[in-house]
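ARCHIVE CARD
Drawer: 12
Card no.: 0347
Subject: one protein chain, sequence and derived structure
Cross-reference: see card 0346
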Amino acid sequence: MGEGWQLLKIRGIPLRIHPTWFVILFVATVAFEQHYRLTLVGQASPGLLWAVALITAVMLFVSVLLHELGHSLVALAQGVQVRSITLFLLGGVASVERECSTAMGALQVAAAGPAVSFVLAIGLLSLGHQASHLSPVFGEMVNQLGALNLVLALFNLLPGLPLDGGLIVKALVWQFTGSQRRGLEVANACGRLLAYGAIFMGSLLLLRGSGLAGAWLLLLGWFGLGAARNQHQLLKVQQALKEIKVKDVAQRRFRVVEASTTLRQLSLLRLEDGPTLADVPTGEGPLSSKPSQAVAGSKSPLNGALPAAGSQLSDWILVCDRGRWRGVIDDGPLRDLPVQRWDSEQVGDHLQPLSSLASIHEAAPLWQAALQLEQNPRLLVLSPAGLPCGTVERAELGYSVLRRLGLRLPAPLLATARRQNGYPLGLALGQIAQGMVGTGEVGSNSAAGAQPPGQEPGSAGARR
């Protein structure tokens, strides 16, 4: 679902209207006009009935907005940023940056919306009698809005995702079992049952001639099944991020030169349009930690599936000296020094330490890599000895997760992801990993996955 048009901001939260909202506004207005025409016979003109029907439809969505604001304000109190509130065909939805980090916090956020609807229902229904003394039309509208808010509260409390009742079930199971994942599985299963029930009831109503009610239940059922399917896919993505290791997806997006290499030779290396000049050769499995001056391109498990042609990220140039890792060099010396000095200046005179590169150990799970890739375009992969043995980028992570889900995308799509240094199909693996940390699904990013600052990778020596 697209974001729609932003109308205003409430407490810093953008309020958006999706184009499909106008469809349901029209349908609701027609339905309310028919209701008022049958219940207020002879008490109002046709024009007034249409006006009151439109006002009722708009006020209904104001009630939906207040419902979502209840969720959003409690989420803000829990330290969760709310991206937007969007009104669309099936009501409203609040988009948050992450889930609450505790089960009780998640329970409070989920319960806030129905609580607001219950308060509105009680208040409106209690005022219905007084409103009827002022005007029968006004009284009927107030009673109608009160009843609709009561239905909104009760409907959202049905125990299945993506409804608030499903979120409450998830939070309660999470609280009692200590597993947020288990709560999501239980609530998702309940959501599927409710969706199938809605589709079944909608089909019966359609067969019996209740077209609008039946179609609405069918629409809700299909929406519920889609939401359940999305939650199931999210669970599989989280599992993949925990189980797959960095070494399973790493490539070698670096080249290796000797410290005695001149800047002139480095410039020619950068101008090369052919295959990778100096990847670390294999010999001990798919990832070897031995530096070499070899110029043959290596093959990693993902080579061929993720073409490097047209990549916006140039290969790193790592430097070794007689079998020992020395550091990394960028294009700074070529930019800063005059061409006349390129033949006399050596790469070894302009090194930066390997610790200047963001790095991760090969045994780290992918969720740790996804977290680091939120701030870095590429990571240096380190062997158990702390030696460079590969690199990892967003494209490799996305490809590996999609493959675990049983999806094999065409090579052009994967090449585009690499060229843009993004995840295939827009996978938000970094946000998913942040959510896993926030809810306690995994521990915080530890030293087991990231190279400690100031410690030189390979500083213990890397002789062949």
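Annotation on reverse: The longest strand covers residues 82-88. The chain has three domains: 5-157, 181-243, 246-438.
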